[in-house]
Amino acid sequence: MRLFVALDLPVDIRETLALMRGSMPGVQWVPAQNHHITLRFIGEITDRHRMEEIDLALSRLAWKPFDLSLAQADIREGLNADSLLIGVERTPQLEALQSQVESVLRRAGCPPAKRRFQPAVTLGHFSSSQRADAIQWVQRHNLFRSKPMSVEHVTLFESLRSLGEHVYVPRAEYAWQPEMPLTPEEE
């Protein structure tokens, strides 16, 4: 199983982001149902015992719900293709939650994250020959700002490959737990 931990987006925000998809030809657009904010990529897990440790670790997450907004279009360079994305406003609560996810996964035996946390929603992928069009796309959508969304749970997703596309299947949700003690940075 190829796993990652993310914030799932509400349907109305997904629909708003989907409206941006047709505005640049030749882009491999991410289906709206796959829009999310990755907190931590885990990778391939084949050991059932390791999967149980990950599940238990994530069930121990504790935070107070907080609001988060998406804002500004951007480009992220990749190895095979570049990506069009919408950024996420960084907040102390988001940073603390992501740090907590990283910490519990490391205690569950996962290796450290390979990339620095850069919260965003990937909307599509394009080739380097489309760079000029991508810059115009960013300029057209750079003032985008979503309404605030409440972060009340994180989701463990499995990434499957089906007919050449990725399908992200939620495997478990971990809701905030008001009875769990918070760490000092979360209060």
Automatic annotation (TrEMBL):
<feature type="active site" description="Proton donor">
    <location>
        <position position="36"/>
    </location>
</feature>
<dbReference type="InterPro" id="IPR004175">
    <property type="entry name" value="RNA_CPDase"/>
</dbReference>
<protein>
    <recommendedName>
        <fullName>RNA 2',3'-cyclic phosphodiesterase</fullName>
        <ecNumber>3.1.4.58</ecNumber>
    </recommendedName>
</protein>
<dbReference type="InterPro" id="IPR009097">
    <property type="entry name" value="Cyclic_Pdiesterase"/>
</dbReference>
<keyword id="KW-0378">Hydrolase</keyword>
<comment type="similarity">
    <text>Belongs to the 2H phosphoesterase superfamily. ThpR family.</text>
</comment>
<dbReference type="Pfam" id="PF13563">
    <property type="entry name" value="2_5_RNA_ligase2"/>
</dbReference>
<feature type="short sequence motif" description="HXTX 1">
    <location>
        <begin position="36"/>
        <end position="39"/>
    </location>
</feature>
<comment type="function">
    <text>Hydrolyzes RNA 2',3'-cyclic phosphodiester to an RNA 2'-phosphomonoester.</text>
</comment>
